[in-house]
Amino acid sequence: MADDRVIGTTYENKGPKPDRGRFLNFHHVEWWVGNAKQAAFHYCARYGFKHMAFKGLETGSRQVAAHAVCQNDIVFVFKSSYEPHSPETKEMGQHLMLHGDGVKDIAFTVEDLDGIMEKAKTKGVKIVKDIWEESDEGGKVRFARVQTYGDTTHTFIEGGNFKGLFLPGYQKPRIDDSLLEKLPPCDLLFIDHIVGNQPDLMMENAVQWYENNLAFHRFWSVDDSQVHTKYSSLRSIVMANWEETIKMPINEPAPGLKKSQIQEYVDYYGSAGVQHLALRSNDIIQSIKNLRERGTEFLNIPDTYYTELRKRLKNSKVQVKEDIEVLRKLKILIDYDDDGYLLQIFTKPLQDRPTVFLEVIQRNNHNGFGAGNFQALFECIEVEQSERGN
């Protein structure tokens, strides 16, 4: 649980600024799922997204259906295959068999794509698809795709002058979903960070991949001496781009008496992969009230967490504006130091496999990742694991 000590290590040295190429922000997240249309409707109804754009048979996409949904600056694209035998859809089928529904690609908006790819090639990065261009009446966009941890990829997107709906080839969705107009808005703003889980002793390899190939730097870290329960623990290093607008925590399990949540993820996902996506809110209380009204399931935090929290806050310099009783009822967690605090909450897994989930986070002059809550979260997740027999 949170207290006034600083948990984890913050890194001040970004290293040399890249002489070519800039990573600006998360462009979108691509999910490979069994039924893209159904997934899009689910995320709109449960999590407050809106139908944004569509690509499929009706638009000339003969092999893959793609449904893009958005909420402010957050864009998820759900893809599923039409044809079972083409090379592209065969890969999608194999991905689904191994991993289940999950995040396949994390796309970044970039500047100077040529410079980024030239460096990637000199570093020996596995290039899934070299630079290509797509266009329609909205203009043209340039892309490239590389392999990162597990089966996950990064697509680099350069298209600052594109005026279309989303990306070339996408059209306005042919959906009239009147239900969504009756549901309360969730006001999730943008992707705060995306967490990748690695098998044991593979975290450092993933970290070095971002350092060497994308010129990301270490932003923050924590190890198993700082974050552990009686039964399990983890190690984590947060990677960030130069401007620190993109943050990518990398986790790995540490040996313990029982299987940690990180190891459980790796076992059920079948490899390294995206564990969760943190979505920023400026009013987490209202966001969570509305998400709960929509039927979103969150981890259950015991009342003892809030009893201890009240005791510690009495001796803290930080002033929490929110009512602790309201946070208790909504099961929202707090982490803080002398300068500020953050509020966060985690959903239960988004599918039957205990793999990917969502986080909602609000920051009040605090750039951490909830390290003070790791133990409380681990204990809550261990209860869930016990119910799953894991």
Automatic annotation (TrEMBL):
Record localization: Cytoplasm; Endoplasmic reticulum membrane; Golgi apparatus membrane
Pfam families: Glyoxalase (PF00903)
Species assigned in the record: Lepeophtheirus salmonis (Salmon louse)
NCBIfam families: 4HPPD (TIGR01263)
CC per GO annotation: endoplasmic reticulum membrane; Golgi membrane
Segments forming domain VOC: 25-159, 190-348
Reactions the enzyme catalyzes: 3-(4-hydroxyphenyl)pyruvate + O2 = homogentisate + CO2
Entries under CDD domains matching the protein: HPPD_C_like, HPPD_N_like
GO MF assignments: 4-hydroxyphenylpyruvate dioxygenase activity; metal ion binding; protein homodimerization activity
Protein name: 4-hydroxyphenylpyruvate dioxygenase
